[in-house]
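agent> fetching stored inputs for the shikimate-3-phosphate docking request
agent> found them:
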Amino acid sequence: MHLKQGIVLVGFMGAGKSSVGQRLAERFSVPFVDTDAELERRAGRKISEIFTSDGEAAFRALETETLAALEIKPAVYATGGGIVTRPENWPLLKRLGTVVHLHGSAEVLFDRVKHETHRPLLRTENPRDTFETLLRTREALYRQADLTVDTDGRIPETIVESIVAAVARLQ
Ligand code: S3P
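agent> prediction call returned; pasting tokens
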């Protein structure tokens, strides 16, 4: 299938946006664009450094700037888990193409990230509590996506096939 417009993956930390996104881009033979990587490239700094020295609000401002500067093309875009929290990001996400929410349960998502250390928002006394609270507050926001794909207990390849089938119906 030929991709007419972009696919934008949103979802919480651990949802698999990067691993699924890379495979999806290969499947459609289009570029893969990661907003976190793009932000770090533009800022010339790691996200964890930006959080530590300038705080989350400064990171969010850079995230919106990065999103607004992206070229609109048939590509697969993976986004940072919190990109959905700023209302002004939604039209910017939707202008890139079909927005797909990669959904997962708190247990499965936490299991995927618990051994990783690069996520500044989880550097708290009780990362598990922080994770669940944040997930709860964001769940309603992810529902603004054009479609939702469940990821629990599924490998990236089968998630890719679900997205391909759903996008074929939509685009
Ligand atoms: C964030 C998620 C991260 C990154 C930043 C903030 C969040 O991306 O953008 O650390 O607010 O959930 P991933 O979802 O790729 O981990």
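agent> quick read of the result: The pocket of shikimate-3-phosphate is lined by residues 13, 17, 36, 47, 80-82, 119-121 (CB under 6 Å).
agent> awaiting further instructions
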